[in-house]
Amino acid sequence: MVRYMRNTAMRGVPRYLTLLAVAAWATMPTAGQTGAKTGEWRYYGSDAGSTKYSPLDQISKDNVKDLRIVWRWHAENFGPRPDYNLQATPLMVGGVLYTTAGSRRNVVAIDGATGETLWTFRFDEGQRGERAARHQHRGVAYWTDATQERILYITPGYQLIALDAKSGRPISSFGRNGVVDLYEGLDRPDPKPGTLGSSSPPIVVKDVVVVGTAGLASVPTKENTAAPVRGYDVRTGKPMWIFHTIPRPGEFGHETWENDSWSYTGNTGVWAPMSADEDLGYVYLPVETPTNDFYGGDRLGDNVFANSGTVSRQMKSGKDQAQVRSGSRAALRDWQASCSVSSVRADTRFGARRLPKDAAYSAAVIESTWIVLVLASSVPTTLTFRPANFFGVCWSLSV
Fold first, then answer.
1. What distance in Å separates the CA atoms of residue 284 and residue 342, rounded to the nearest whole number?
2. Pair 389, 337: CB distance under 8 Å
């Protein structure tokens, strides 16, 4: 059994979100997830909901033993040194693979049938790139309006770049000649070089590019640079909204960062891949722990938005929708659940109550128990889990 508590700072706020715990997902009859459409893989997690599922069935348990390697593509020469920790998941659109490669995080387009390199893009940031907060990378994002096609990615030095998917050339009308400097517009003192970055691709839904932030981990002080989440217009690169994962004065949850700890605490970023619901217009954010990863004694209070398995935001406005937390202040250990949340649609019964057919669910696993949050409300609500043990394990669902 999982106990939950509503954050004391939220008393008096109506709870229109429903928390449900069930012993096994198998007890939930669901409509099958479609996952990737037409066999393409347009998002890091297959689709915007991060189901990580494709309905392709040419390869089966019966013929998988007969598979043979047709081609290999090598990334050793991309960058001044080999990348020994390649984490990128290529996207596939129209038979073309798009991914990042090498220690410099070059972008490449590869013919999926032959392995031929169609184009490459290299952005030399000099010392800014060398001093990156995060050198690991997980790939790119894709966007189209049925006329234009764009590839978007974040450089090691924390700049957002939009490329033409056909040619690999920067989109001159996006930002400054295709580049948006993500060190700008943070509405806090300018961060020092190398303190902010991103190791995961942005996510694009409803013409909004949502960018997470990763900071330096396990710093030896209580002070660090805060790591907000921001939305940009996919056509122009203009900023649309900023979400402070450490709320500023006047913002929801600010009072839960006691003794002005909001002013010096950092991190609390979204460095893992994000997911979204295109119909609801929500993006789901797995928020990490604040500074320091292993000691929270300098940031008293409930620290709203920190250590959250899911925080949902409206794509267009960036307004808060709901928060599900895996732990409280993480006073002695890192409680972050930094993995993309799978948005699962289901038509199901719990007792005598039927949930809406198109209700969207976010799920995480806590001690082998499914925690299902029904995201069907526009009222910000906080539910704080206090399990005996939590290892930050999230599972994607294909049902």
1. 9
2. no
Higher pLDDT, 306 or 249: 249
Opening angle at CA 215, ends 227 and 236, nearest 5: 55
Backbone angles phi, psi at 365, to 5 degrees: -110, 125
* Tokens found for residue 372: 């299902």
Residue 381, C-beta contacts closer than 8 angstroms, at least 6 positions apart: 6, 10, 13, 14, 15, 16, 17, 322, 323
295 pLDDT band, cuts 50/70/90, is: confident
Of 58, 36, 56, 59, which is closest to residue 48 (Cα–Cα)? Answer: 36
State pTM to two decimals: 0.79
Q: Is the pLDDT of residue 396 over 60?
A: no
* pLDDT exceeds 60 at position 6: no
Beta strands at 382-385 and 320-325: parallel, antiparallel or unpaired: parallel
Please name every residue paired with 142 in a beta bridge, in sequence order, or none if there are none.
151
User: Both ends of the chain: CA-CA distance in Å?
Assistant: 24
Q: Tokens in use for 154?
A: 């974040």
DSSP per-residue string spanning 259-307: TTGGGT--B----SPPEEETTTTEEEE----BS-TT--TTS-S--TTTT
Band (pLDDT 50/70/90 cuts) for residue 29 is very low
